[in-house]
Amino acid sequence: MARLKGLYDLRRFAIGHIETQTKDERGEPAFDTLWTIIFRDQGGFGGETPPRERSGIDIPKGKPADFRIEETTSKEQALLYRLSGDLNPLHADPEFAKRVGFEQGPLLHGLCTYGYMTRHAAQGVVGGDSSRLKAFEGSFKKPVWPGDTLVTEGWATEPGKVALQVSVKERSEVVIGGAWATYE
Fold first, then answer.
1. E runs forming strands in 24-108
2. Which of 178, 61, 165, 56 is nearest to 121 (CA)?
């Protein structure tokens, strides 16, 4: 089940918030998601800006990360990830990527990058037992290209909560920020 929670105006961009609920084979709720979809060049329609929601799970200032996991994506990563069903040419066609402003070529799928973050969080906070992870959130900040080295850092903020940040080693750029996970 999915519903549009809101459509917001950021002058140049429009943002849609879509809530989904996924059920298991018995029809029982398995998990909920909130999707934020950015519509390039579709803003300026006079709508409201999105509400600011704070998780309360922030990177502690001045504290070194409790874990740091580094992993290099393959040059073919975006082409392999297309097997998940996302056939957007932005992830495979160099000419298309250039036409929409990405001179370096096709980008890695955001969901693939997010997957690296969640796997690294499982390794860093629950010894690889992903069944103990309960919730995630993060904001995409910059693109990732296939072959980039992703560095996920995590700060335990209190029992069951970890602040996360993913950067690209080669450019020292944060690519997922404002991120956190809860676990048991």
1. 29-39, 67-72
2. 165
CA dist., res. 27 & res. 24, Å (int): 5
Q: What distance in Å separates the CA atoms of residue 121 and residue 153, rounded to the nearest whole number?
A: 8
C-alpha 62 chain-centroid distance: 24
CATH number, domain at 135?
A: 3.10.129.10
**Residue 55 pLDDT more than 80?**
no
Residue 64's pLDDT is: 97
149 assigned to some structural domain: yes
Number of domains in the chain: 2
Across the range 60-81, mean pLDDT stands at 95
Angle formed at CA 118 by CA 51 and CA 17, multiple of 5 degrees: 25
Q: Do residue 80 and residue 125 come from a single domain?
A: yes
Domain that holds residue 87: 67-183
pLDDT at 74 over 70: yes
Give me the pLDDT at residue 147, please: 97
135, containing H or E segment: strand 133-140
Write down the pLDDT at residue 165.
97
